[in-house]
Specification:
Blueprint: H1 6-16, E1 25-27, E2 35-37, E3 45-47, E4 51-56, E5 60-62, E6 70-74, E7 77-78, E8 85-87, E9 99-102, E10 112-117, E11 121-124, E12 128-132, E13 135-136, E14 142-145, E15 147-149, E16 157-160, E17 165-167, E18 171-176, E19 181-183, E20 187-189, E21 201-203, E22 206-207, E23 215-219, E24 225-226, E25 230-235, E26 239-242, E27 246-250, E28 253-254, E29 260-263, H2 289-320, H3 326-330
Antiparallel strand pairs: 1-3, 2-4, 4-6, 5-8, 6-7, 9-10, 10-12, 11-14, 12-13, 15-17, 16-18, 18-20, 19-21, 22-24, 23-25, 25-27, 26-29, 27-28
C-alpha cells in the first residue's frame, strides 16, 4: 500500500485550514501561594479547553476539602482557582513523664518542640521533635533521675566521697595536699544535667613581703603571705598615701602595687598653666630694702606734719574764741 509521507499530510492540513479557524490559547498560569501543579509540563501556552489540576504544597492542606482544584482555558484566560491552602497542624504532643514539651513556635508545619525535664531529671534521647508533613518526627525522649559519673581527679589534692555514680544533688568535697592552696570551690554538687562542673586546682601560692616607707601595717600578719591573705597600711602623720592601702595575695601575686607615702610638707609642683592670655614679660618692680626704709621715713614725717598742723589749728581757734572781760575792756 502506498503511504504518503507525514510531512506531506502536515502541509496539506495547513493549506486547508483558514485563518479564522486557529484555536485560542492561554498563557501558562501562575502557580499561586502554597500551591503547585500536579503535573507541570513547563509549556509557555496551552490550547483552549486545556484543564490543569493543582494541589497544596508540602506542609499545607486545603482550607475547604470540597473546593475545586482545577482550572480550564476558556478563550484566552483561565477559570478561577478555588483551592486555598493553609499550614498543617501536627497537633499537641502527648504528656512527658517528669517533664514537658516547650513549643514557642506553635504546633504547625515547620515548628520545633523541645523536651524539658523537671528539676532533678535529665533528658535521655533526642530532646527536639519537628512538625513534618506527616506529623511529629522521632519519638518521645525519657526524663530519668539525674546521676553523675565520678568527677575528675586533681593534682596535689583529692576529693571525697569516692563513688562510681552520684545522685542528683549529691556533693563531693575537694582538699589539697600540705603546702598547696585550693583555688576554686571546694564543694561540687551533681547538677540536673548529669555532669559535674570543672574541679578546682591545688597550687603553691605565696606572696613576698614588702616595705612601705613612712607607713605602718595596721592589718595583716608578717610575711610570707598565703593565698587570699591581705595587708592594710597607713601613712605616718605628715604623709599622704598614693595607691591602694589594701592589698590581697592572689593567684598571680598582689592585687595591686605597694602604695607610697608622700611627704605633705614638700610643696607640690605646679601643674600645667591653664589656657588664657599670654602674660607680658614686664613685671612690676619689686621694692628692695633701701626703698622700703625711705617710704617708712616719708610716712612718719607726713604723720608728724599732720599732727603739728592739727595742734596749731586747735590752739589758734581757742585763742580767737576768748570773750574780753570788763576789766580788760576798761584799760
Amino acid at each position: 500500500m502506498w503511504e504518503t509521507p507525514s510531512y506531506t499530510l502536515i502541509i496539506l492540513l495547513m493549506c486547508l485550514m483558514k485563518p479564522g479557524e486557529i484555536r485560542a490559547q492561554c498563557d501558562a498560569p501562575s502557580v499561586g501561594e502554597n500551591r503547585i501543579l500536579t503535573e507541570d509540563s513547563g509549556q509557555a501556552t496551552y490550547p483552549e479547553g486545556t484543564t490543569l489540576t493543582y494541589k497544596c504544597s508540602t506542609g499545607y492542606l486545603p482550607v475547604q476539602a470540597g473546593s475545586s482544584r482545577s482550572i480550564t482555558c476558556t478563550g484566552k484566560q483561565w477559570t478561577e482557582l478555588q483551592l486555598q491552602c493553609q499550614l498543617k497542624s501536627c497537633g499537641s504532643l502527648g504528656e512527658l513523664a517528669n517533664g514537658k514539651y516547650l513549643t514557642p513556635d506553635g504546633i504547625k508545619f515547620g515548628a520545633t518542640a523541645t523536651a524539658q525535664c523537671n528539676k532533678g531529671y535529665m533528658v535521655v534521647g533526642v530532646k527536639t521533635r519537628n512538625c513534618r508533613d506527616d506529623g511529629w518526627d522521632g519519638r518521645d525522649p525519657v526524663c530519668e533521675a539525674a546521676k553523675c559519673q565520678t568527677p575528675s581527679d586533681i593534682q596535689n589534692g583529692m576529693f571525697e566521697p569516692l563513688k562510681d555514680v552520684y545522685d542528683y544533688g549529691e556533693a563531693v568535697i575537694y582538699s589539697c595536699n600540705k603546702d598547696y592552696t585550693l583555688v576554686g570551690d571546694s564543694e561540687m554538687v551533681c547538677p540536673d544535667n548529669g555532669t559535674f562542673p570543672p574541679p578546682p586546682r591545688c597550687l603553691k601560692i605565696s606572696c613576698d613581703g614588702f616595705m612601705v616607707e613612712n607607713a605602718q601595717r595596721i592589718e595583716g600578719r608578717a610575711p610570707p603571705y598565703k593565698y587570699l591573705e591581705f595587708v592594710r597600711y597607713k601613712c605616718n602623720e605628715g604623709f599622704r598615701m598614693e595607691g591602694s592601702a589594701f592589698l590581697k595575695c592572689e593567684v598571680n601575686g598582689w592585687s595591686s602595687p605597694p602604695p607610697k607615702c608622700i611627704d605633705t610638707t614638700v610643696p607640690i609642683p605646679p601643674g600645667p598653666i591653664p589656657p588664657g592670655p599670654v602674660p607680658t614679660t614686664s613685671a612690676p618692680p619689686v621694692p628692695n630694702g633701701n626703698t622700703t626704709v625711705i617710704w617708712i621715713v616719708i610716712g612718719v614725717l607726713l604723720a608728724l606734719i599732720l599732727v603739728g598742723g592739727l595742734v596749731f589749728y586747735l590752739t589758734k581757734r581757742t585763742h580767737w574764741g576768748k570773750v574780753p572781760t570788763r576789766n580788760e575792756g576798761s584799760t
